Amino acid sequence: MMDRLTLLASDCNIAKQANQRLEELIDFAAEVGAPLVTVGGFRGRLAWSEEENPREILIAILKSAAERAFNLGVRLALEPLNRYETDIIPNAAEGLELVQRIGHPAIGLLLDTFHVNIEEASITDCFRDAYQAGRLFHVHIGDSNRLPPGKGHINFAAIIDTLYMLGYSEYLSAELIPSPDPDTAAIDTAEFIQRLLR
Hints:
Blueprint: H1 12-32, E1 36-39, H2 54-71, E2 75-78, H3 92-102, E3 107-112, H4 113-119, H5 125-132, E4 136-141, H6 156-166, E5 172-174, H7 182-196
Parallel strand pairs: 1-2, 2-3, 3-4, 4-5
Helix pairs in contact: 1-2, 5-6
């Protein structure tokens, strides 16, 4: 985002650079042994594209990227973002629908509790649906105010219990405002979540 690169940029040169960056990120992930590459705001917005059918263009880009990732032993995790940050894939259901249309085993979802809190009717059903579809690749945790868990009103006990009962064994990672500072936010997050783990 610092380089202002998005896959659905109105400038075709910027969109091309963004696609190249995605390929570079996949290659880098493979080199360092990272299990996945996430695609969140980097996808851009449908409204930014001047193409006739930007959704189909995004599907084609992600399908190609998924194949590259698969060949290198990496997966792509598409992150639904709330309606204030995107006009495409604001929730898990739309994410699963797009992933199904792409139809590649190397692409799934990253569900972020901050966005889930805004967009989902149930704080737990979206995790269950994504997991049962075999597409829950990663989870971001952050409270309703983007602070460390326990500083807002999200019911993390229900989420952790759901993930445990489903058998989710991938990572939980914090994506939040580093308040009062990054180290304290990390410690607060780890301590809070560890109390909920069995």
